[in-house]
Protein backbone atom coordinates (compact mmCIF):
# COMPACT_ATOMS: atom_id res chain seq x y z
CA UNK A 1 0.00 0.00 0.00
CA UNK A 2 1.22 3.48 -0.86
CA UNK A 3 0.59 6.11 1.81
CA UNK A 4 1.20 9.86 1.86
CA UNK A 5 0.80 12.29 4.76
CA UNK A 6 0.79 16.09 4.67
CA UNK A 7 -0.24 18.98 6.93
CA UNK A 8 -0.82 22.70 6.61
CA UNK A 9 -2.21 25.51 8.77
CA UNK A 10 -5.82 26.62 8.99
CA UNK A 11 -6.02 30.34 8.25
CA UNK A 12 -6.61 32.00 11.63
CA UNK A 13 -6.79 35.81 11.25
CA UNK A 14 -6.98 37.80 14.47
CA UNK A 15 -10.30 39.66 14.53
CA UNK A 16 -12.15 37.15 12.36
CA UNK A 17 -15.49 35.91 13.65
CA UNK A 18 -15.35 32.60 15.49
CA UNK A 19 -18.11 30.00 15.45
CA UNK A 20 -19.78 27.31 17.52
CA UNK A 21 -21.50 29.47 20.12
CA UNK A 22 -23.88 32.37 20.30
CA UNK A 23 -23.08 35.26 22.61
CA UNK A 24 -19.68 36.16 21.22
CA UNK A 25 -19.58 39.90 20.61
CA UNK A 26 -16.17 40.26 18.91
CA UNK A 27 -13.79 38.20 16.79
CA UNK A 28 -10.75 36.15 17.77
CA UNK A 29 -8.19 37.93 19.93
CA UNK A 30 -5.40 35.36 20.23
CA UNK A 31 -4.06 31.95 19.17
CA UNK A 32 -3.36 29.24 21.73
CA UNK A 33 -2.44 26.56 19.20
CA UNK A 34 -2.16 26.80 15.44
CA UNK A 35 -5.13 24.98 13.94
CA UNK A 36 -4.18 22.38 11.34
CA UNK A 37 -5.46 20.60 8.25
CA UNK A 38 -4.10 17.07 7.81
CA UNK A 39 -4.29 14.77 4.80
CA UNK A 40 -3.71 11.03 4.52
CA UNK A 41 -3.60 9.54 1.02
CA UNK A 42 -3.79 5.76 0.60
CA UNK A 43 -3.55 3.71 -2.59
CA UNK A 44 -3.64 -0.04 -3.11
CA UNK A 45 -4.03 -1.96 -6.37
CA UNK A 46 -5.04 1.19 -8.20
CA UNK A 47 -7.73 2.26 -5.71
CA UNK A 48 -7.07 5.69 -4.20
CA UNK A 49 -8.49 7.29 -1.05
CA UNK A 50 -7.98 10.62 0.65
CA UNK A 51 -8.86 11.54 4.24
CA UNK A 52 -8.62 15.24 5.08
CA UNK A 53 -9.08 16.41 8.68
CA UNK A 54 -9.72 20.09 9.45
CA UNK A 55 -9.48 21.59 12.93
CA UNK A 56 -12.59 23.74 12.48
CA UNK A 57 -16.28 23.52 13.44
CA UNK A 58 -17.43 22.25 10.05
CA UNK A 59 -18.14 23.24 6.45
CA UNK A 60 -21.50 23.57 4.71
CA UNK A 61 -22.38 20.45 2.66
CA UNK A 62 -22.37 22.48 -0.57
CA UNK A 63 -18.87 23.80 0.05
CA UNK A 64 -17.62 20.31 0.88
CA UNK A 65 -19.19 18.81 -2.24
CA UNK A 66 -17.67 21.51 -4.45
CA UNK A 67 -14.24 21.00 -2.87
CA UNK A 68 -14.47 17.21 -3.21
CA UNK A 69 -15.23 17.58 -6.92
CA UNK A 70 -12.21 19.82 -7.46
CA UNK A 71 -9.93 17.42 -5.57
CA UNK A 72 -11.43 14.53 -7.53
CA UNK A 73 -10.51 16.23 -10.79
CA UNK A 74 -7.04 17.20 -9.59
CA UNK A 75 -6.07 13.75 -8.28
CA UNK A 76 -8.29 11.51 -10.42
CA UNK A 77 -10.00 10.10 -7.31
CA UNK A 78 -13.73 9.30 -7.21
CA UNK A 79 -15.71 11.59 -4.90
CA UNK A 80 -16.79 8.50 -2.93
CA UNK A 81 -13.12 7.98 -2.02
CA UNK A 82 -12.62 11.47 -0.55
CA UNK A 83 -13.53 12.34 3.04
CA UNK A 84 -13.26 15.94 4.25
CA UNK A 85 -13.75 15.74 8.00
CA UNK A 86 -13.94 18.50 10.63
CA UNK A 87 -13.20 17.95 14.31
CA UNK A 88 -15.95 20.41 15.39
CA UNK A 89 -13.90 22.64 17.67
CA UNK A 90 -15.98 25.61 18.87
CA UNK A 91 -12.89 27.82 18.98
CA UNK A 92 -12.06 28.17 15.29
CA UNK A 93 -12.81 30.69 12.54
CA UNK A 94 -16.36 30.81 11.17
CA UNK A 95 -16.43 28.14 8.47
CA UNK A 96 -20.06 27.53 7.53
CA UNK A 97 -23.69 28.39 8.21
CA UNK A 98 -24.59 28.76 11.87
CA UNK A 99 -26.93 31.74 12.19
CA UNK A 100 -26.12 34.05 15.09
CA UNK A 101 -22.87 32.24 15.77
CA UNK A 102 -20.41 33.81 13.33
CA UNK A 103 -20.51 34.33 9.57
CA UNK A 104 -18.02 32.56 7.32
CA UNK A 105 -15.99 35.01 5.25
CA UNK A 106 -16.25 34.35 1.50
CA UNK A 107 -12.58 35.14 0.86
CA UNK A 108 -11.54 32.83 3.73
CA UNK A 109 -13.59 30.00 2.25
CA UNK A 110 -12.06 30.49 -1.21
CA UNK A 111 -8.54 30.55 0.21
CA UNK A 112 -9.23 27.52 2.40
CA UNK A 113 -10.56 25.59 -0.57
CA UNK A 114 -7.30 26.30 -2.37
CA UNK A 115 -5.37 25.14 0.70
CA UNK A 116 -7.31 21.86 0.74
CA UNK A 117 -6.62 21.18 -2.94
CA UNK A 118 -2.91 21.97 -2.58
CA UNK A 119 -2.63 19.79 0.52
CA UNK A 120 -4.32 16.88 -1.25
CA UNK A 121 -1.75 17.12 -4.05
CA UNK A 122 1.08 17.28 -1.51
CA UNK A 123 -0.13 14.16 0.30
CA UNK A 124 -0.29 12.30 -3.02
CA UNK A 125 3.37 13.18 -3.66
CA UNK A 126 4.68 12.24 -0.19
CA UNK A 127 4.37 8.53 -0.88
CA UNK A 128 5.98 5.61 0.92
CA UNK A 129 5.20 1.91 1.07
CA UNK A 130 3.30 1.36 4.28
CA UNK A 131 0.77 -0.55 6.31
CA UNK A 132 -1.75 0.13 9.06
CA UNK A 133 -2.54 -1.45 12.37
CA UNK A 134 -5.52 -0.79 14.60
CA UNK A 135 -5.99 -0.82 18.34
CA UNK A 136 -8.74 0.11 20.76
CA UNK A 137 -8.54 1.94 24.07
CA UNK A 138 -11.02 3.38 26.52
CA UNK A 139 -11.46 6.92 27.80
CA UNK A 140 -14.08 8.41 30.10
CA UNK A 141 -13.69 12.17 29.72
CA UNK A 142 -17.17 12.52 28.24
CA UNK A 143 -20.74 12.34 29.50
CA UNK A 144 -24.17 12.32 27.88
CA UNK A 145 -25.45 15.88 27.96
CA UNK A 146 -29.02 14.90 27.04
CA UNK A 147 -29.16 12.29 29.81
CA UNK A 148 -27.78 14.97 32.16
CA UNK A 149 -31.14 16.74 31.84
CA UNK A 150 -32.63 13.67 33.53
CA UNK A 151 -29.80 12.97 35.94
CA UNK A 152 -32.14 11.82 38.70
CA UNK A 153 -33.21 8.87 36.56
CA UNK A 154 -30.43 8.31 34.01
CA UNK A 155 -26.72 7.45 34.54
CA UNK A 156 -25.55 10.29 32.30
CA UNK A 157 -21.84 9.64 32.90
CA UNK A 158 -22.17 6.07 31.60
CA UNK A 159 -24.42 6.57 28.56
CA UNK A 160 -21.59 7.05 26.07
CA UNK A 161 -19.12 5.17 23.91
CA UNK A 162 -15.81 5.20 25.76
CA UNK A 163 -14.01 3.43 22.92
CA UNK A 164 -10.92 5.15 21.48
CA UNK A 165 -9.94 3.97 18.01
CA UNK A 166 -6.23 4.19 17.18
CA UNK A 167 -4.91 3.70 13.64
CA UNK A 168 -1.14 3.60 13.34
CA UNK A 169 0.62 4.15 10.01
CA UNK A 170 3.99 2.47 9.47
CA UNK A 171 6.63 2.53 6.76
CA UNK A 172 7.02 -1.00 5.42
CA UNK A 173 10.79 -1.16 4.90
CA UNK A 174 11.73 0.15 8.33
CA UNK A 175 8.59 -0.49 10.44
CA UNK A 176 8.98 3.16 11.41
CA UNK A 177 5.89 4.86 12.82
CA UNK A 178 4.82 7.69 10.50
CA UNK A 179 1.38 8.68 11.69
CA UNK A 180 -1.39 8.05 14.22
CA UNK A 181 -5.11 8.70 13.66
CA UNK A 182 -7.23 8.81 16.82
CA UNK A 183 -11.04 8.57 16.79
CA UNK A 184 -13.15 9.50 19.81
CA UNK A 185 -16.71 10.73 20.30
CA UNK A 186 -16.82 13.81 22.53
CA UNK A 187 -17.62 17.43 21.60
CA UNK A 188 -14.46 19.62 21.65
CA UNK A 189 -16.20 22.18 23.87
CA UNK A 190 -14.13 22.40 27.04
CA UNK A 191 -13.89 26.15 26.33
CA UNK A 192 -17.13 28.14 26.23
CA UNK A 193 -18.41 31.25 24.46
CA UNK A 194 -16.30 33.57 26.62
CA UNK A 195 -13.20 32.18 24.90
CA UNK A 196 -11.84 34.37 22.09
CA UNK A 197 -8.66 32.36 21.51
CA UNK A 198 -8.24 29.95 18.60
CA UNK A 199 -7.72 26.38 19.78
CA UNK A 200 -8.55 22.82 18.79
CA UNK A 201 -9.63 22.41 22.44
CA UNK A 202 -8.75 19.11 24.15
CA UNK A 203 -7.63 17.41 20.88
CA UNK A 204 -4.68 19.83 20.71
CA UNK A 205 -3.40 18.74 24.11
CA UNK A 206 -3.83 15.08 23.15
CA UNK A 207 -1.86 15.65 19.94
CA UNK A 208 0.87 17.61 21.71
CA UNK A 209 1.41 14.93 24.35
CA UNK A 210 1.50 12.10 21.81
CA UNK A 211 3.84 13.93 19.43
CA UNK A 212 6.21 14.58 22.34
CA UNK A 213 6.01 10.86 23.16
CA UNK A 214 6.53 9.61 19.60
CA UNK A 215 9.17 12.14 18.58
CA UNK A 216 9.87 13.98 15.34
CA UNK A 217 8.44 12.72 12.08
CA UNK A 218 5.19 11.30 13.50
CA UNK A 219 1.97 13.10 12.55
CA UNK A 220 -0.85 12.70 15.08
CA UNK A 221 -4.39 13.38 13.84
CA UNK A 222 -7.58 13.56 15.91
CA UNK A 223 -10.97 12.71 14.37
CA UNK A 224 -14.36 13.18 16.01
CA UNK A 225 -16.78 10.30 16.29
CA UNK A 226 -20.44 10.21 17.33
CA UNK A 227 -20.73 12.99 19.87
CA UNK A 228 -24.03 14.70 19.09
CA UNK A 229 -25.14 14.13 22.68
CA UNK A 230 -21.70 13.88 24.30
CA UNK A 231 -19.76 16.71 26.03
CA UNK A 232 -16.70 16.69 28.29
CA UNK A 233 -17.48 16.20 31.98
CA UNK A 234 -14.98 18.90 32.92
CA UNK A 235 -15.33 22.25 31.16
CA UNK A 236 -14.51 25.92 31.47
CA UNK A 237 -10.75 26.49 31.22
CA UNK A 238 -7.59 25.71 29.28
CA UNK A 239 -6.39 23.76 32.32
CA UNK A 240 -9.38 21.44 31.98
CA UNK A 241 -8.88 21.18 28.21
CA UNK A 242 -5.28 20.12 28.89
CA UNK A 243 -6.39 17.54 31.44
CA UNK A 244 -9.02 16.15 29.05
CA UNK A 245 -6.56 15.92 26.18
CA UNK A 246 -3.79 14.32 28.20
CA UNK A 247 -6.25 11.82 29.65
CA UNK A 248 -7.21 10.87 26.10
CA UNK A 249 -3.53 10.65 25.09
CA UNK A 250 -2.94 8.17 27.92
CA UNK A 251 -5.84 6.07 26.62
CA UNK A 252 -4.23 6.06 23.16
CA UNK A 253 -0.93 4.82 24.59
CA UNK A 254 -2.74 2.10 26.56
CA UNK A 255 -4.81 0.94 23.56
CA UNK A 256 -4.76 -2.81 22.98
CA UNK A 257 -3.53 -4.14 19.63
CA UNK A 258 -6.29 -5.64 17.47
CA UNK A 259 -4.92 -6.36 13.99
CA UNK A 260 -2.37 -5.41 11.38
CA UNK A 261 -3.32 -4.79 7.76
CA UNK A 262 -1.06 -6.27 5.11
CA UNK A 263 0.89 -3.97 2.82
CA UNK A 264 -1.32 -5.01 -0.11
CA UNK A 265 -4.67 -4.70 1.67
CA UNK A 266 -7.65 -4.27 -0.63
CA UNK A 267 -9.48 -0.94 -0.53
CA UNK A 268 -13.20 -0.85 -1.25
CA UNK A 269 -15.24 2.36 -1.19
CA UNK A 270 -18.96 3.00 -1.36
CA UNK A 271 -21.02 6.17 -1.25
CA UNK A 272 -24.71 6.80 -1.65
CA UNK A 273 -26.88 9.89 -1.47
CA UNK A 274 -29.81 9.10 0.80
CA UNK A 275 -33.08 10.95 1.25
CA UNK A 276 -33.86 11.78 4.88
CA UNK A 277 -37.12 13.49 5.93
CA UNK A 278 -37.32 16.61 8.08
CA UNK A 279 -40.03 17.27 10.67
CA UNK A 280 -41.46 20.63 9.62
CA UNK A 281 -44.21 22.80 11.10
CA UNK A 282 -47.39 24.17 9.55
CA UNK A 283 -47.45 27.63 8.00
CA UNK A 284 -49.59 28.84 10.91
CA UNK A 285 -47.06 27.60 13.45
CA UNK A 286 -44.21 29.41 11.68
CA UNK A 287 -46.33 32.60 11.68
CA UNK A 288 -47.04 32.30 15.40
CA UNK A 289 -43.37 31.73 16.24
CA UNK A 290 -42.36 34.66 14.02
CA UNK A 291 -44.67 37.07 15.85
CA UNK A 292 -43.65 35.82 19.30
CA UNK A 293 -39.93 35.93 18.50
CA UNK A 294 -40.14 39.40 16.96
CA UNK A 295 -41.96 40.71 20.02
CA UNK A 296 -39.35 39.11 22.29
CA UNK A 297 -36.53 40.60 20.24
CA UNK A 298 -37.98 44.12 20.48
CA UNK A 299 -38.44 43.84 24.25
CA UNK A 300 -34.87 42.61 24.75
CA UNK A 301 -33.54 45.57 22.78
CA UNK A 302 -35.70 47.98 24.79
CA UNK A 303 -34.24 46.43 27.96
CA UNK A 304 -30.72 47.09 26.68
CA UNK A 305 -30.05 43.43 25.83
CA UNK A 306 -30.87 42.27 29.37
CA UNK A 307 -30.30 39.55 30.50
CA UNK A 308 -27.63 39.09 27.80
CA UNK A 309 -26.66 39.75 24.19
CA UNK A 310 -26.96 36.00 23.54
CA UNK A 311 -30.70 36.19 24.25
CA UNK A 312 -31.12 38.86 21.57
CA UNK A 313 -29.12 36.76 19.10
CA UNK A 314 -31.29 33.71 19.80
CA UNK A 315 -34.52 35.69 19.38
CA UNK A 316 -33.28 37.24 16.12
CA UNK A 317 -32.34 33.82 14.73
CA UNK A 318 -35.82 32.59 15.60
CA UNK A 319 -37.39 35.53 13.74
CA UNK A 320 -35.33 34.81 10.62
CA UNK A 321 -36.01 31.08 10.78
CA UNK A 322 -39.77 31.44 11.20
CA UNK A 323 -39.97 34.04 8.42
CA UNK A 324 -38.16 31.66 6.06
CA UNK A 325 -40.63 28.93 7.02
CA UNK A 326 -43.61 31.13 6.14
CA UNK A 327 -42.04 32.17 2.84
CA UNK A 328 -41.18 28.56 2.10
CA UNK A 329 -44.90 27.76 2.11
CA UNK A 330 -45.79 30.87 0.10
CA UNK A 331 -43.14 30.21 -2.55
CA UNK A 332 -43.50 26.42 -2.49
CA UNK A 333 -39.79 26.15 -1.60
CA UNK A 334 -40.03 24.73 1.93
CA UNK A 335 -37.35 22.09 2.38
CA UNK A 336 -38.86 18.83 3.66
CA UNK A 337 -35.88 16.53 3.19
CA UNK A 338 -32.10 16.52 2.94
CA UNK A 339 -29.82 14.44 0.75
CA UNK A 340 -26.60 13.51 2.57
CA UNK A 341 -23.81 11.45 1.06
CA UNK A 342 -23.00 8.48 3.32
CA UNK A 343 -19.54 7.01 2.75
CA UNK A 344 -18.00 3.69 3.72
CA UNK A 345 -14.45 2.49 3.18
CA UNK A 346 -13.02 -0.93 3.87
CA UNK A 347 -9.22 -1.01 3.98
CA UNK A 348 -8.25 -4.58 4.67
CA UNK A 349 -10.09 -5.37 7.90
CA UNK A 350 -10.55 -1.73 8.89
CA UNK A 351 -13.93 -0.09 8.22
CA UNK A 352 -14.64 3.65 7.99
CA UNK A 353 -18.21 4.98 8.03
CA UNK A 354 -18.58 8.73 7.52
CA UNK A 355 -21.66 10.97 7.72
CA UNK A 356 -22.27 14.75 7.45
CA UNK A 357 -24.00 15.05 10.81
CA UNK A 358 -23.61 15.56 14.52
CA UNK A 359 -24.38 11.90 15.18
CA UNK A 360 -25.93 10.70 18.43
CA UNK A 361 -24.09 8.09 20.45
CA UNK A 362 -26.65 5.30 20.05
CA UNK A 363 -26.55 5.42 16.25
CA UNK A 364 -22.75 5.23 16.31
CA UNK A 365 -22.91 2.13 18.49
CA UNK A 366 -25.41 0.51 16.11
CA UNK A 367 -23.09 1.18 13.16
CA UNK A 368 -20.16 -0.39 15.03
CA UNK A 369 -22.31 -3.43 15.82
CA UNK A 370 -23.08 -3.83 12.11
CA UNK A 371 -19.48 -3.84 10.89
CA UNK A 372 -17.66 -4.97 14.05
CA UNK A 373 -16.95 -2.86 17.10
CA UNK A 374 -13.28 -3.84 17.16
CA UNK A 375 -12.56 -2.72 13.59
CA UNK A 376 -14.93 0.16 12.79
CA UNK A 377 -14.28 3.90 12.86
CA UNK A 378 -17.33 6.17 12.62
CA UNK A 379 -16.75 9.78 11.60
CA UNK A 380 -19.23 12.60 12.03
CA UNK A 381 -18.85 16.04 10.41
CA UNK A 382 -17.64 14.53 7.12
CA UNK A 383 -18.72 15.97 3.78
CA UNK A 384 -20.09 19.03 5.54
CA UNK A 385 -22.59 19.26 8.40
CA UNK A 386 -26.37 19.19 7.93
CA UNK A 387 -26.88 19.51 11.67
CA UNK A 388 -27.80 17.00 14.36
CA UNK A 389 -28.78 13.38 13.77
CA UNK A 390 -30.65 12.53 16.98
CA UNK A 391 -31.39 8.85 17.44
CA UNK A 392 -32.79 6.22 19.76
CA UNK A 393 -33.74 6.70 23.38
CA UNK A 394 -32.38 10.25 23.49
CA UNK A 395 -34.37 11.55 20.51
CA UNK A 396 -37.53 12.37 22.46
CA UNK A 397 -35.55 13.54 25.49
CA UNK A 398 -33.45 16.04 23.53
CA UNK A 399 -34.15 19.74 23.90
CA UNK A 400 -31.56 21.81 22.02
CA UNK A 401 -30.57 19.09 19.54
CA UNK A 402 -34.14 18.38 18.34
CA UNK A 403 -36.00 21.59 19.17
CA UNK A 404 -33.51 24.38 18.47
CA UNK A 405 -30.29 23.44 16.67
CA UNK A 406 -31.86 23.33 13.19
CA UNK A 407 -32.71 27.04 13.50
CA UNK A 408 -29.01 27.86 13.62
CA UNK A 409 -28.12 25.46 10.81
CA UNK A 410 -30.83 27.03 8.66
CA UNK A 411 -33.23 24.08 8.20
CA UNK A 412 -37.01 24.34 8.72
CA UNK A 413 -37.06 21.40 11.12
CA UNK A 414 -34.96 18.63 12.66
CA UNK A 415 -34.38 15.28 11.04
CA UNK A 416 -37.38 13.02 11.49
CA UNK A 417 -37.14 10.26 14.07
CA UNK A 418 -36.78 7.56 11.40
CA UNK A 419 -33.74 9.17 9.72
CA UNK A 420 -31.18 7.11 11.64
CA UNK A 421 -32.94 3.85 10.78
CA UNK A 422 -32.97 4.80 7.08
CA UNK A 423 -29.18 5.12 7.27
CA UNK A 424 -28.85 1.79 9.12
CA UNK A 425 -31.01 0.02 6.52
CA UNK A 426 -28.70 1.32 3.80
CA UNK A 427 -25.57 0.25 5.67
CA UNK A 428 -26.94 -3.26 6.27
CA UNK A 429 -27.02 -3.78 2.50
CA UNK A 430 -23.24 -3.23 2.35
CA UNK A 431 -22.37 -6.07 4.72
Please explain how this structure is put together.
The chain has 431 residues and is of the alpha+beta class. The protein folds into two domains: 2-266 and 341-396, no CATH class; 281-334. Helices cover 32% and strands 27% of the residues. The chain contains eleven helices and 23 strands. The protein has helices at 61-75, 106-125, 145-148, 202-214, 238-253, 283-302, 309-330, 361-371, 400-403, 405-409, 419-428, and strands at 2-9, 18-19, 30-31, 36-44, 47-54, 82-86, 92-93, 127-138, 142-144, 163-171, 177-184, 197-198, 219-224, 230-232, 256-260, 267-273, 276-277, 337-338, 341-347, 350-354, 358-359, 376-379, 388-389. The strands form seven sheets. Strands 1, 4, 5, 6, 8, 10, 11, 13 and 15 form a nine-stranded mixed sheet that branches. The protein has a four-stranded mixed sheet with strand order 16-19-20-22, with helices on one face. The chain has a two-stranded antiparallel sheet with strand order 2-7. A hairpin with a 2-residue loop joins β19 (341-347) and β20. α6 (283-302) packs antiparallel against α7. The model has no long low-confidence stretch (mean pLDDT 97).
Amino acid sequence: MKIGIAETDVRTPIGMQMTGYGGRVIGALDINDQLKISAVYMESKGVKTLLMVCQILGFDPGFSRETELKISEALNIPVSNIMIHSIHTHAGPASGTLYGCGIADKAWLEETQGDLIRLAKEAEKNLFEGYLDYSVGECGIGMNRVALLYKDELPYQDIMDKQVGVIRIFESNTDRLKGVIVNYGCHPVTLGNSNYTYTADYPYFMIRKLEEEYGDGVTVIFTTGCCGDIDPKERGSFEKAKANGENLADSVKDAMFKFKNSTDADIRCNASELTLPLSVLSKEEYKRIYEEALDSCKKLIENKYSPSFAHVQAAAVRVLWADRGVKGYENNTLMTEVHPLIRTWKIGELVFVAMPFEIFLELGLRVKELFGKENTVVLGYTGGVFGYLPYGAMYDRSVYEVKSAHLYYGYPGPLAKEAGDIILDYLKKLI
